[in-house]
Amino acid sequence: MRDAAVTTATYTGVFHGRPDQVSRARREVARYLGGCPASDDAALIVSELATNAVQHSRSRHGLFTVHSELFPTYAWIEVSDAGGTWDPVDTSKDGGRGLGIVAALAAEWGVDGDARGRTIWARLQW
Fold first, then answer.
1. How, if at all, do strands 74-81 and 108-114 pair?
2. Which CATH fold topology does 19-125 show?
């Protein structure tokens, strides 16, 4: 998965669980990944995962963390939230497509943690 020995850039930011912080998180990651071939996709993934943290976790009353690392051939993105009940979303209604977008853009992705705290990660390859 990740090879820390060849990391070229790392970013970690902590944000309040408010909707206005989603765009801030997206801008910060886009700035950090600047010339990376997958920076636009990374920013979109951060936006989707940060939105989930604000809307669907206990982070809406607290904080969420965004972490990214840039490697020579891929970018690693993580959004950690305060956990809570994991409810599958009905994608036939408006919304609920965020993880589908992540899956479509990422070479691989996953969820670690439980109701006490959760990290969703994605690896973008080029």
1. unpaired
2. Heat Shock Protein 90 (3.30.565)
pLDDT in tens, 5-19: 566 779 999 999 999
Question: Helix or strand or coil: residue 126?
Answer: coil
Domain boundaries, the chain: 19-125
Residue 5's SS3 state is helix
DSSP character string of 34-100? TT-TTHHHHHHHHHHHHHHHHHHSGGGGSEEEEEEEE-SSEEEEEEEE---------TTSSS--HHH
Give the three-class secondary structure for 102.
Answer: helix
pLDDT in tens, 13-42: 999 999 999 999 999 999 999 889 999 999
Q: Identify the CA nearest to 62 among candidates 96, 21, 23.
A: 21
